[in-house]
Amino acid sequence: VTAALEAATSEEDRRKIRAIDWLVFDESQRAEALKQSNAVMRTFLAMKKHAAAKEVFEKIPSGSVDVINRQWQIQNGSAPLPAEDDNAIREYICIQTFLMAHDAFNDWFTHFHHNKPHRPKLQEGANFTEKVKHEHREQEYEVEVSRWHHSLSLQTDDVVSKIYNVLLFPDGWMVDQRMESDEDEGRTHQLDLLRQLCLPTMALLLHTVLHETRRYADCMVLADIIASEQHQLYTVFRRDELQRFLQKLRDSSIQLLDQNLDPLGYQVSS
Amino acid sequence: LAQFLASHEHLSWLHDINTSKWDKAHSTLKTLAAKETKYAARKKTLLSISKLAALASDQPQDLIQQQVGGINNELQLLFFQENLPAEVLQNKGLDADNMPVLAPHDLIQLYVGPENDRANEHDFNKALDLMQYIDEDDPAYEGLKLHIWGRALLKDDWSSISTDEPLSACSHTVFFKTVELAFKNGVDLQEYLPDVDMLLSSEELGGLKDNSSFQYLVRAGYEQIQRVMTQE
Question: Distance between CA A194 and CA A175 in Å, rounded?
C-alpha cells in the first residue's frame, strides 16, 4: 500500500525544497513565496510525493497568513487582499488539510497492521512452570490487545474526521473562491487535476479505514457524501473509479448481511 | 450466495453490482427507495447508491443525466426534511437521526404550521418549493396553496399597520416578504399565489377575515404584485 501511495524524493526535488528557504526570507515577499511553494507542492502531490510536499509545507513559517495580511495592509491600507493572494492562502490551507489527512492515515495504517500484539504460543509438551508462565503471558496479551483496540478506536476517529475535512472542505477542496481577471489557466487546470487525483483516493482510503475497523454501516453512508449535489464529489470520479467504489460498498454490505442486518446496516424488522 | 442475492429484490442490487449490471442496480435501488417509509436516512442512502450506479453505467450520457435528475429530485425532497428547524422536530417528537420518511404534504404543514412558531419568509418559500411535489390533480392541491398563504398572513398583527401608506407599511410583513423572496427566486407566482378573493375569504384567517383595514392592505399589495408581474 505504501509504495502505491508514496513516491521517493529525488535530488532534483531536494533542490526545489531548499529553494523555499530563500523565498520565505523576506516578509514583504511572503505572498509570492506562498504562491511559489503552492506550485511546488502541487507538482509533488500530483506525483504522490507526499513526503516532499510535507517538507515544503514545513518550510513555510506557520504565521504566514498573518504576515501576508499585515504586509498588504502596510502597503495598501484597508483595501481587501487581491483575489490571487486570497486564492493562494486558501490553497495553502487545502494542502495542509490534505497532508494532515494523509499523515493520519499513515499513522492509522502502521498502528493497525504493525502494532497489533501477537498472541503468545505454548510449546507442545510444555512443563508446569512453562504453562504458568504462558498463562501469565496470555493475561498480559489480553491487556495489550484491549489497549491496542482502545487506541485504534481513537486513531480511527482521528483519521476519519481528517479525511472528512478534505472531502467536505467548505465550498470544495482546491476550488478557488474568487475569480481573477487574468486567470492563470495552468494553475486552474492543475487544481482540477489534483481534485480528480486526490479526492477519489481519499474516499477509498476512508472506506478502507471504516471497513477494516468493521464500521460497515458508516461505509454505506459514504455513498450519501459522494453522491451529494452540494459537495459534487461524484463529478471528480472516473466511471471505473465509481464502479470500484460501488464494489467496495458491496463488500461492506455483505458484512452487514453476515451480522443479520439489512444491506445498509439497519435492524431487520419482522 | 449469488443465487440467493438475485432472488431477493432488497438484495439483488448487490448481485447486480458484482456482475457489473449498473443500470439494473440503479433501477432496483430506486424502486426500493420509493417503497421506503421507515427511515428517511435509509431512503437517502438507497437513492445515493442508485445515483452512483447510474453514473457508473456505460449508457448514453443523456439517459444517465435523466436518471440522475430523477434521483436528485427525490434527494431534494429529503433535503427539505433534513432541514426542518430543530424546534419543529422537537415539537413533533421527531429524532433527526431516526426520522421516518415524511410526505410532501406533511413537510409543507411542518414548515408553515403551528409547530414552526418562528416561521419566516424562507420557511414559506420552502413550502412553496414543496408544492412541486404535489400533483396538481391532488384534491388537496388548491387547499394547500391557500393554507400556505393564509398561514403567512396570520404571522403579522395587521391591526397595528397604518393604511396611510399601504405599500411601504406592508413591505415588512411575512406575507409580502414571502412574495418578494419567491419573486427573486423565480417561483411561478401566477401558479402559486391564489386569487385574492379566495384567499381573503379563507376560513383559515378566522376573525382577521372581517377586518376591513386588513382587507384593504392586502388588496393594495396584490395590485402592486400584479403590476410587477405583468411588467416582467
Answer: 10
pLDDT per position as a tens digit, A87-140 = 999 999 999 999 999 999 999 999 999 899 999 888 888 889 989 999 999 999
A264 with B58: Cβ contact below 8 A: no
Structural domain including A17 reads: 1-81
Q: Does A264 touch chain B (CB under 8 A)?
A: yes
Q: Could you tell me which chain A residue has the CA closest to the CA of B18? A: A247
User: Count of residues for chain A?
Assistant: 270
Distances (CA, A) of B221 to B120, B126, B147, B218: 18, 22, 19, 5
CB proximity A228 to B under 8 Å: yes
Chain B within 8 Å of A214 (Cβ-Cβ)? Answer: no
For residue range B107-160, what is the model confidence (pLDDT) as tens digits? 999 999 999 999 999 999 999 999 999 999 999 999 999 999 999 999 998 888
Residue A164 lies in a domain: no
- Structural domain count of chain A: 1
Shortest Cα distance, chain B CAs vs residue A242, angstroms: 6
Residue A51 lies in a domain: yes
B68 in reach of chain A (CB within 8 A): no
- Pairs of CB atoms within 8 A across A/B: 66
Let me know if domain B2-82 sits in CATH 3.40.190.80.
no
Instruction: Give SS3 for A261.
Output: strand
Residue B188 has phi, psi (to 5 degrees) of -75, 90
Are B10 and A263 inside 8 Å of each other by CB? yes
Angle at B140 between CA B136 and CA B142, to 5 degrees: 65
Where do we find the cell 417528537?
B93
Which of B38, B56, B72 shows the shortest C-beta gap to A243? B56
In a domain, A60, yes or no: yes
Q: What SS3 class is residue A66?
A: helix
